[in-house]
Specification:
It is built from four helices and no strands. By secondary structure, it is mostly helical. Keywords: ATP synthesis, CF(0), Chloroplast, Coiled coil, Hydrogen ion transport, Ion transport, Membrane, Plastid, Thylakoid, Transmembrane, Transmembrane helix, Transport.
Length: 185
C-alpha cells in the first residue's frame, strides 16, 4: 500500500524540464493515460457519440417495451377469446350432457314401455292360448263322452232291439217323413 501512496505523492515531484525519461511506475502512468483519454473523449466527443449511443439504446429499449406491450395485449386478447370459447364450449358440453341424459332417460322410458307392451301382448297371447287349449280339451272330452255314450246307447239298442222292433221303428220313421212331406206340399 505504501507504493500506491508514494506514486501519488511523486506526481508533484516530477523531474525538472529538460530531462526526458520514461516513468516505469505502471499505476501512475495508467492513471495519467486514462485521465487524458477521458478528457479527450469528453472534449471532442462531448456527447455526440455517447448521446447518440444512449439515445439509440433508449429508442431500442422503448421499442422493445412497446413491442412487448403490444404482444402482451395481443396475448391478453387471445387469452380472453380462448376463455370465451372455453365458456361457450363448456356451456355446449353441459347442454349436450343434459340433452344426452334426457335422451337416455327418454330411450329408457321408451324401452320400458315397449317391454311392458310386449309382456302384456305375450300375457294376452298366453291367456288366449290357454283358453283355446282348454276349449279344445273340453271339446275332445265332450266328443269322447258323446262317442262313448253313443256306443253305449247303440250297444244297449242292439241288445234290446230285435228285428221286428227294428222294422216297426223304421216304418214309424217313414210315416213321420211322409207326413212331413204332405205338409210341405
Amino acid at each position: 500500500m505504501k507504493n500506491v501512496t508514494d506514486s501519488f505523492f511523486s506526481l508533484g515531484h516530477w523531474p525538472s524540464a529538460g530531462s526526458f525519461g520514461f516513468n516505469t511506475d505502471i499505476l501512475a502512468t495508467n492513471l495519467i493515460n486514462l485521465s487524458v483519454v477521458l478528457g479527450v473523449l469528453i472534449f471532442f466527443g462531448k456527447g455526440v457519440c455517447l448521446n447518440d449511443l444512449l439515445d439509440n439504446r433508449k429508442q431500442r429499449i422503448l421499442s422493445t417495451i412497446r413491442n412487448s406491450e403490444e404482444l402482451r395485449k395481443g396475448a391478453i386478447e387471445q387469452l380472453e377469446r380462448a376463455r370465451t370459447r372455453l365458456r361457450k364450449v363448456e356451456i355446449e358440453a353441459d347442454e349436450y350432457r343434459m340433452n344426452g341424459y334426457s335422451e337416455i332417460e327418454r330411450e329408457k322410458e321408451n324401452l320400458i314401455n315397449a317391454t311392458c307392451d310386449t309382456l302384456e301382448r305375450l300375457e294376452n297371447y298366453k291367456n288366449e292360448t290357454l283358453h283355446f287349449e282348454q276349449q279344445r280339451a273340453i271339446n275332445q272330452v265332450r266328443q269322447r263322452v258323446f262317442q262313448q255314450a253313443l256306443q253305449g246307447a247303440l250297444g244297449t239298442l242292439n241288445s234290446c232291439l230285435n228285428s221286428e222292433l227294428h222294422f216297426r221303428t223304421i216304418r214309424a220313421n217313414i210315416g213321420i217323413l211322409g207326413a212331413m212331406e204332405e205338409i210341405t206340399d
